[in-house]
Every structure is written in C-alpha cells, then in structure tokens.
Request: fold
Amino acid sequence: MDFRNKVIYQIYPKSFYDSDHDGIGDLRGIIEKIPYIVKLNVNMIWFNPFFVSPQKDNGYDVADYRAVDPRLGTMEDFEELVAKLKAHQIDVMLDMVFNHTSTKHEWFQKALNGSKKYQDYYIIKEPKPNGGLPTNWTSKFGGPAWEKFGSTDRYYLHLYDKSQADLNWRNPEVRNELYSIINFWMTKGVKGFRFDVINVTGKDARLVDAKPGEESKSLYTDKPVVHDYLQEMNRESFGKAADTVTVGEMSSTSIENSVGYTNPDNHELTMVFSFHHLKVDYQNGEKWTKTKFDFMKLKRILDNWQSGMAKGNGWNALFWNNHDQPRAINRFGDPGEYRVKSAQMLATVIHLLRGTPYIYMGEEIGMTDPDYHGIGDYDDIEAINAYHALLKKGLSENEAFDIVHAKARDNSRTPMQWADKENAGFSSHQPWLKPTNYRQINVEKELNEGSIFNYYQKLIQLRKNDPIVSHGGYESLLMDHPDVFAYFRTYQNQKLLVLNNFFKRNTAVTVPDQYLSLDSRVLISNYDRQTFEKSIILKPYEAIAFLLIDRESGEQHV
Reply:
C-alpha cells in the first residue's frame, strides 16, 4: 500500500494498558488490545520509546537502544507484538531518539571513565577563558544547556535535560552506530521509524554564543548538514527497504527545509512533523502562557504548509495530538457541551488534508485533558520546571498552576480510558498518572453508544478508498472567513469541498457560483447534512465534505 493511503496510530506504551498490574502500561497490554486497534482500521502504529531508560524524560533518555525496558516487557513480547500486528496487516513504527542519549548509556559512562573514543561521541567543550560556560545557550527544558563533565573542568552539551547528553553527529563513528541500530530493528520486522528532534543534530564544529536578542536554537536548528546526514542514513539503513515509512520530528523548522527533507528525489524522509500550528495559543510565542488560540493565524499556518509542501512535492504528517501536546479538544474545540461535535470537526480537518494523518491514542474516543488540581498530580520534568520558573517570575501558585494545567505534556499522557471502573480499566493498581473523567469518557461507552470512534473509522476508510483524499491536490478557500477553515482537495475532474466551523455559534458560508452546477454528494458530515446550496449555515463545530464532479470536463481539473 502507498504510504499516502495510510493512517498511523500513536501509542504511548506506559499509558495504553497495564497487563501485569504494576500501574505502568506494557507491551503485553498492547497485545491484549490488538482487537481494538484492528477495529479502528489503521495501517501502522508508532510506539513511543520502550527501550531501557532511567525515565528522566519518560523514555526519551535512552540507555540501551537494542533492549526493551523490563518494566515494559521483553524482546520476546516485542517480537510477538510485531507478528500479531502483521497478521492484521498493521506495521510497526519505532521512535529513534538519536540527538542525545541518557547519561547512563554505556557510551557516556565510558566517556566519563576517560575513553577518548567515547568522549568524541558527545559534544564536550572547554569553559571560556574567563571560566564561563562554553556558550550562552539555554536548554529547552529551562536553564543552561551545559553541565559539568564528571570531575573535569569541561562541560557537555544537553539541549534537553541534563541527563540527556547530545551526541556528536560530526563523528562518523556515531552515525554508523545509529544506522546499525535502525538495521537491528529492521531485522525484527520494523517497517517505520520516527526520528526525535532530528533537525537539531547539525551542530557546527565551533559553537558560538547567541547574540543579544538572538535565540540559541537558531544556531543549531535546520543546518544544511542535516540533509547530508539524512541522505546518508537513508542510504545505510531504512532506504534499503522500499516500503519503509519514516517521519522526522522537526523543531522550529521551515517549509523550505521540510520540502527538502521529504521530496522523494532527495532520498531523506517520507514526511515531517512541524509544530507551528500548535503554537497559536502561545502569548508572544511563549509556551507557558494562557490565552485563546488565534484562529486566523491557525488557518494561515495550515494553508501555508499545505500549499508550500504540495508545491515542492514534500509531504506533511498531519496531527493535532501527541504525547508532547495537551489534548487538542481543550485547545481548539469544546471539551464540554460540544465535545463530540468538536472532536469530529477537528478530525475532519486533519484527515481530509494532503498528508498522512496520525491519531493519538484516546483521540478517537474524545479524551480530554485531566481535571488536575495541583502540581503534585503532574510527573513531567518540563511541567514541574515550568511551574517553579513561573513562581520565580512572581506568579501566584494558582496562576502558575493554571498555565501548567493548560499546557503540560502529561495532559495527553494520562492512561487510556477503557471502562467506567476503577483506574479507568487501565490497571488494578494505581496508575503512574491519575485518570480523571473516565466515568463519562471511556472506550466501552464510546463503542456502545458514542459516535466519535465510528466517525474516525469513516475518515480512515475515505483515505483508503478515495484517491482525492490520499492523492489529491490542495487549494485554499475562504481564507478571510472569521469562523470557518475551508479548503478544496482536487483530483482529475473532482473537487472535494471541506468546510469546518471552529466555533460554538452558527455561521454562514457562501459557495461560489461556479461550483453550484456540479454534481455533488456528501462524503462525510458530523450533522448528517445532505444538501449542497449557495448559502450554507454551519452549526456549532459542524464539519462537512462535499464531493463535486464536473461530468463535462472528462479527466481535466475543474
């Protein structure tokens, strides 16, 4: 199957299902729930890291890339999982955290013990002549990006937590080690790879301070050499198998670079995750703030990426939710009165765009952010650091918590809500993160009487069956409309008109005259609307897609 027809489901293993009842999800728990995944009808599952890890950053601090963390299972469990998914034509995508390793990794430990070879696996620098840190770069988790290297006078770079030491990609031995890890997992039947923050691997040999007013990330993000690294990685590992699907998580990237990363002629990656559309509720670009999302900015960003990537023959990974983001329904929908309609509307936006849709576990049943009441409910190091940083800025505990409660990554990491029973049916033991509203929102209830899961099934089927969804072009529409994100998909003599109302009020849309004479039918609607007319009054959070066919134009575009 062409990757353009695929839909990918993301599982955060710690939070999916706990089979051994220790409060932590595991691989055997995922095996038990395969019938549920099959029912959704996805093609591939992206698993967040389940490798051996001290769990300082929930598995993104890897201590052994070739071993399963015993808390999550065994290699035999993984092999059984791959085989059982394959029997249902579902492939596996693994998360490769290659910008950094845990400081507990064997390579870093050997470096600490004096091995010159392994010290060159990391970015270790002398202090400035005045004794200051090598550069003024800041960590993405707060504070300086440098930490003392053992008992020496030198420092190692960590763009993330101090337990995550950045690898030196300039060293070809490091790159070869990483490629061999990919090849190891390919022999286990893995068909997909997601590369964590892969576009920050291109650090210069000489690192310099950020100038006043300059963000340090501009000095190491999207460097031209990253394209060279990706081409080499493609050539030496996953590129040897024609059906492999790869996606790069791109931090603060550009359309131009992402076209380069994903244009098939460049032999780099299949697709990229970009995050600009998920920063439209950041006040002055700051994550740890609380403000309503800027709808017009959201539209512009989605439109720019759709148009720009299509023009350059690049490919988008399409998503609202993942393990690093609060639930989209709380940000862009209505988790209360219109939870069902806004969940369906948001799904329509993503699944009918040009690109590959990703569904994050729980999204398909309309899960929302947890109803937490104090910082003690959170586990994530980034959220806890942010809370204390906000207190230092002078905010009250209530103000600081209110912001963290809106933006924390743990909001999406709460256990999958399987049933209306203790611990959401996730475990008989107290889960590592507390679920809250599982009495109202759970898989059992959704499958019995809900309509969100069923709506996702329809969207997935459309991508598999309708070339206009999987292979069609993209055209913008009604970009000035204050409530509606509308667009066309185009394929041969067809157009797909997609209308999405982002608000809880009725709003009017006027269809241009030239489309009214075309044959029309409703492809999908979350209000069961059937009529196509000049003036359409969209209801709160209404989404509808009309397939328009020009019978007279033959195979020509409308």
